[in-house]
Write a structure and sequence with these properties.
The structure holds two protein chains of two kinds.
Chain A: H1 7-27, H2 32-43, H3 48-73, H4 78-85, H5 92-119
Helix pairs in contact in A: 1-2, 1-3, 2-5, 3-5
Chain B: H1 2-21, H2 30-34, E1 53-59, E2 66-71, E3 76-79, H3 83-109, H4 114-117, H5 122-130, H6 133-145, H7 148-167, H8 175-180, H9 189-204, H10 209-227, E4 277-282, E5 293-301, E6 303-304, E7 309-315, E8 318-324, E9 333-335, E10 339-345, E11 351-355, E12 365-368, E13 371-374, E14 376-382, E15 390-396, E16 419-423, H11 431-440, H12 444-451, E17 459-465, E18 470-475, E19 490-491, E20 510-512, E21 518-521, H13 543-554, H14 560-567, H15 573-585, H16 592-603, H17 613-634, H18 647-656, H19 675-694, H20 703-707, E22 709-713, E23 723-726, E24 742-744, E25 747-751, E26 759-763, H21 781-786, E27 790-791, E28 805-813
Parallel strand pairs in B: 1-28, 3-7, 6-22, 11-19
Antiparallel strand pairs in B: 2-3, 2-28, 4-5, 4-21, 5-24, 5-25, 7-8, 8-9, 9-10, 10-17, 11-16, 12-13, 14-15, 17-18, 18-20, 22-23, 25-26, 26-27
The chains are: A mainly alpha, B alpha+beta.
Amino acid sequence: MNNSLTFSYKLAIILVMVVIGVISGLYLPWYSLGILFALLAYILRIPKGIAFTLGLVSGFLLWAISAFWIDGQHPSSLPGRMAHLFPLGGSVVGLYIVTGVLGGLTGGLWAWAGANLRFNK
Amino acid sequence: MKYIKSIFPLALAIIWTYALHNSWGTLPPLGKLMSPFHGFWVNAEAPESAELSEENLQIPGLEKTVTVVYDEMGIPHVFAENDHDLYVAQGYLTAKDRLWQMEFQTHFAGGRISEIVGEKGMVSDQFQRRMGAVYGAEKSFEGMKEDPKATETLQAYSDGVNAYIESLTERNYPLEYKLLNYAPEKWTPIKSALFLKNMSFVLASGTDDLKMTNILRKYGKEVAENLFPNYPFVESPIIPVGTPRDFKSVPIPEGPSDFIGLGSAMKTPEKDPNIGSNNWAVSGNKTVSGLPILANDPHLTLSLPSIWYQMQLVAPGVNVYGSTMPGTPNVIVGFNKNVAWGVTNVGSDILDWYQVKFKDASKAEYWHDGKWKKTTMRIEKFNIKGKESFVDTIFFTHHGPVVYLSHEKPFKSNIPVGHALRWIAHEKSQELTTFYKLNRAANYADYAQALTYYSAPAQNFIFASNQGDIALWVNGKFPLKSYTQGKYLLDGTDPKADWTGFIPQSHNPHAKNPVRGFLSSANQSSVDPTYPYYMGWQYAPSERGRRINERLEAMSKVTMDSLRGLQNDNFNIRARTLLPLLLAKLKSPAGGVYGQAVNELARWNLQNAADSKGATIFENWVTLLHEAIWADDFSADENVPMNSPSMDRTIKMIQDEPQSAWWDNVKTKNKKESMEEIISGSFKASIDTLVKKHGPLGSEWFWYKHKQTGIRHLIPGMDALSRLNIPTGGGGTIVNATTMKTGPSWRMIVELSKEGRPKAHGVYPGGQSGNPGSTHYDDLIDSWAKGELRSLLYLEKPEDATGRLRKKIILSIKK
């Protein structure tokens, strides 16, 4: 197996993951993100060593940027309130990060799981 | 090995996802909640632009097209072509803004909170059901169904709510469903009945009978009647003294023989909520316009989403504007082109307890009127989230449900165990018909007729018409009682203690166009003691009512704005009497903070203004003084809950009974305290606590900082969705009755017009939307806190040229 993928190949995988993530997010339940990342890792033969990181980065970017974008499109006091609830001292930036981390860990774990299913047979 | 290696990450991913998909204790389902595509992010709403936007929605069940225009406050003005469509639209639009609140409140009312929050909701759920909330709603639903119009209205409203629920997918559920991780269920007409019954819980479930019996047992009847008199010393009753009566009273029942009940012993303290309301109508001969002006501000526990939902409802035969209650059709407080009306609560005694004598442990029979009679049983099933469901049996005598059996621990300390509950809220009723008719009323006769259908919770219905009439009916179903019947716990075996009938509705206290040119109510005594029937011994303290009446008496050339001033009046009428009395007896340590505080009180203008320090000192002192006088005698044993005498009685004692034995603190064994010592001691204690809490006397002592008014989200502890520490003045006995947790939940002033449209102003502490992600969630709070009102838009047709419209929705038939 090949652990030394080129940077542009990694970037392409991240892009594919993000696009798939957006589409699944719009039409499927939230956890479809993970299942689809696992499938991608399996089908695209993403190496075990890098799958988690790629899933993590994709999931993080997908959720953090989407949250940021929605907040820009629909400015409201809600993220600020949620940032008090969690509690992040009302920091909306903190909330983007927490959102990104949750999406990232979900994406990373599932991509890792997908890669392991293929390469540990 | 390889197999495990390949499965392990998958297992981890599944566990992680499972953990994030579910709620854990109070922790919400983080994955679902935080996903930008599914979670709370989706609930963010951008403020609407100033330009009119248009939208088309299709709704099943409509007969014709309905046009809705929203104004800049997000208030929908609904134009339908028939009643049916009007109420479908009301249900749909209310749900669109308030679905979670409607459902949560009816879940609460029906004792179903444990389905959402699990076992911790169980005690309150059981209490609701044992008090007969569901039983009462079923009875009242029966009553509603006798009026075909009400049935149609309820069904249409329900269809509208369901049309909205069906249009939702999980990702656009209201925020609270996502936080608490559950889904809305289908709405049914009986939920509206549950909601209306819950108003009796909110307004007419207060009960002192147990506490009074405990006093009777400890001190005897003479003391109980002396300290808890049946009419206040100072009062300005709702129906003006001398109002002629247009009825011949029916005979009063003989009443029960004297009975000293068992009382009961139990723990858990409980506070009476500070809930009251103001309303008044001023007749044309006192107003600048020459036509009546009506004002109303119902006080309730302040909460978010707002208790009320403003709407204008227009269809052939009706064009009404006002506040609706999410969960029930029609406008509850409002106006149309010809009339305006408002409500305050009546403090009459419509809830009594009967000590039950069961034959044996099976509780199948109880003793009444010299015979063993059969109980009936009602089975209530509780579906508890995360637990097995629980089945509870409630025993009923002919009086009503036995709320707690003798060995059970009650949810609230004022509820006696082993007693059956007789409560007006269990009667068949037709409140919906009243509001349906009030919405369409054109004159006094229509209003009076509409009120004949109303049972509970009894309200002071204030009224004004553009024909120049003003009126007030103290209205509801009142049991026909002997004098003071039900002040103490009653003997469940004595048939003479039963409710034998009701005061005929046409004999309910009422007044129309009095000479003094105004009518008002503020929950004080409905009538003076010459009224032929006994309605209750204890009403809200008279201060607000007296202040309103003295102001209205003095005012001439009344305008909407001068009445807005009266709604926000912060004058402390209690301090006017009491403060000089106290200062005359006060022996305060000279100098230091005590001296400063005395000076502060001496120059206080008696206004409970937000930035008053005098108000803080006075209110805190009075609270501690009352406690210092009475706690040793009436709160000594927490197992035997008792009432403390009212402030009205206490002031009487300060004025006329300086030598009374009650001044002595019985807890100090070798000392007999004098009135002066108690007054001075409580002053020192109150200043000490204020210094401890707020530091040296300064701006930290401002009344609003001490009082800490907050408007809290319905989910307890949800501060992030609440507005706390709101800078407002007022107080419990102030016309501006804003306390820590309660206050004017809707302020409305209407000036009627002969030909043109009525002029109206209003505000509530919140906003139209129930969505914390909307600007309309709390955008009216600042105006409310400042005492401002917003001009209310009364449209004749949706095309009325106005720069205030923001959004137009066409609701069309879905095939």
